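User: I want to check something. If I give you two sequences, will you return the structure for each one separately, not as a complex?

Assistant: Yes, each is folded on its own. Here is the first sequence with its structure:
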Amino acid sequence: MEEKRINERESLELITRMIADTRSRIETRDGNIVLNWGLLSVAVAAIVWIALVTTGNPGFNGLWGLIALGYLFNRKEKKAQRQKGYTSFTDRISNRLWIPVMVMAVVSFAVCAVFDIVLEKNLWKLMFTFPFIFVGFASSVQGYVIDVKSLVYGGMLNMAVGIVLIALLMEGIRLDTVWAMPLFIVCMTTLMIIPGLEMKHLARRGHEKS
């Protein structure tokens, strides 16, 4: 059987449909995931902030481990996404983009915990810069893939803030919990909560048009 060759215009149309289809699925399901992660991150940050300010005990930084609860949200949404149908190459790029971020988060948390418990060295402030740089980068790339501007701009803003924080640490300038944690909460709002709400809005608007 002779294979049908497609021209440049048909190729472009195929790629456009694939991206639009991926965007629709990501907006519907990943909008919930992004929003859930954002709300969880802000809630945990608020708990850690209150604990640190009221007690002054850096050991309460271990409460950041509560972020792992986010995987419970992911399981339900990802299962529903798989049941939706086939997975395109663009879907796989978008989903697998977060795998290195998750691995690095676990490794970074473990390193900080070991230094704190075994060597009594407080490296938690370095861990504090992680979501700004790596999560910001992954969010910005995903925003370009599915054309969600708040993800792109939120990711870029967080990367810029992360670079500034690392520069402050390298110069020996203390990241005071009083202002650093509220900064984190504001940045996570721009990085996850606002894009999550936009994605859900786009999904509802697309559903109404269909």
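And separately, the second sequence with its own structure:
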Amino acid sequence: MEGLGVSDSALPDPKFWAGKRVLLTGHTGFTGSWTALWLASMGAKVSGFALEPDTEPSLYRLAAVDRDVAPTIGDLRDARAVREAVEAARPELVIHLAAQAIVRRGIARPAETFAVNVQGTAHVLDALREISGVRAVLVVTSDKVYANDELGRPFKETDRLGGKDPYSASKAAAELLTRSYGDSFFEPSGVAIATARAGNIIGGGDFAPDRLVPDLVRALRDDKRLELRHPEATRPWQHVLDCICGYLLFVERLSASHTVPHALNFGPDSAPVTVAQLADALFTAFGRHSAWSHTPDSTSIEMRALAVDPSQARMQLRWRTRLMGERCVRWTAGWYRASLAGEDMRAITLRQISDYMDGKAGPE
């Protein structure tokens, strides 16, 4: 995996975020915890709504994210709880991250996945349209919202939506739902609303099951071989900070103008990397020889090839991936090495955010 260095790209503006009331759903999750810390570091007043962390350990607890958020623990499927959280937050800006985000869990629990990702999103938007003062809403979906023909071509925002597995289909449905609310309620009232379609996110602090990086870290910790279901599958891997940077820039733009697209892709500039290639690079970053085996899953309906075209995000927001290739892997492995060594993970996480904003190379 080639390291291309830091791209010349825009960064979130702390002056914009300082003092802003932000509602962040999913603040206890992997991406949500990083987002909450970044927003708070810029002076935003963050209110969160999410379930309790569903992993142990969790980034939320390791980094003491509750110090930076006015947290509400609740379920997206509970319309009343969502409404009460929205009314208490009175947000100016909203980033909706909360979701059932695991593909295999979606296959095992399809009704739950649709209830959380579709009905839950409707509950959030329904509550938001009843209050005043909202300026911009960003609903985060997935790169898996497209009707995938498995040819590996990068999907553009104008390509047809689809999804053969429940998670992918639920996120495509959330796209349609969001556009419906935008056309019917938000935009006629002067509120900007859009969706963000992100590639596969990696970075420190992810402990979820059935994801490559946390599975690899657990294998290293327990001195076991890593089992890969689809080593040949390609994905648009990107660091969590690159992805969140895109979200924050998108919200800034939405707040200032209604002329931006209704949806933007956020993915790496480089060609998609296979699961096996990323695993090998991570083993090297941890100073270990690759130790994985192929454990085929004959029942899997997961897509084998996936890529998104981020050119619109580059053009509209001056957003580019800054942590490319080996650099992305080093930052990720560095976080987990510090965690396994028992270091102060709040300090480590905040330092990576600061280094990202400062354009530093980060841990080697």
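Because they were folded independently, the notes below concern the second chain alone. The radius of gyration is 19 Å. Residues 1-7 have pLDDT under 50 and may be disordered.
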